[in-house]
Amino acid sequence: MIRLVLADDEAVVRAGVRAIVTARGGVDVVGEAADGSEAVALVAEHRPDVVLLDVRMPRCDGLAAAAILRRDFPATAVVMLTMFDEDAYVASALDDGVSGFLLKTGAPGELLLGVHAAATGGAFLSPRVARRLVDRYSGVAAGHAAARDAVASLSRRERDVLTLLAEGLTNREIADRLGLAESTVKTHVSGVHTRLGVPNRVRAALLAHEAGIVSGGR
What we know:
This protein is an alpha/beta fold. It has helices at 11-22, 36-46, 62-72, 87-90, 108-119, 127-137, 141-152, 156-166, 171-178, 182-196, 201-211; strands at residues 2-7, 27-33, 50-54, 77-82, 100-103, 124-125. The protein has 11 helices and 6 strands. Strands 2-1-3-4-5-6 form a 6-stranded parallel β-sheet, with helices on both faces. The radius of gyration is 17 Å and the shape is globular. This is LuxR family two component transcriptional regulator.
């Protein structure tokens, strides 16, 4: 059972997200918060597997809460909930080690994929969020060319691992898909991070989207 804390200042949004993530079983919402400070307190109390954080909340927003949580509670995966036009706000969370970005208005399946991926050590980018971030932060054709060149430097197996990683699969799932040992996949992921010069799975996934080797989720 995945234990989840959900933080959004709008009760109706929390209710909708809770209904989606618990509908198929396997997820237990152990706490709900209306701002980032409450979310941090709930994580300290319950030590959940995942916390879903709205980007914009009063008093302490999701970005500030994410930084605190990644510093003080690294065992809890952080996934950001964002609106379609909020990419400028979430970009600063990329290097904090968050496990994904999900669109509030996205398909219900994306919420489930994001929560499950984060809970099992993976990362998930809503395809529309990934596209917005790529467009905003590479901005020009040269940025896409640089990403393609970086991916081209990988071995064939590393590229396979990167593609599946960017689709939100965990190391175990990648291992099953490719017929490899999980320890081998971990080695490949570490090599991908090193060769691409990225600090975490979300940055690697974003670069994969930028290079055009990922078409969407699972």
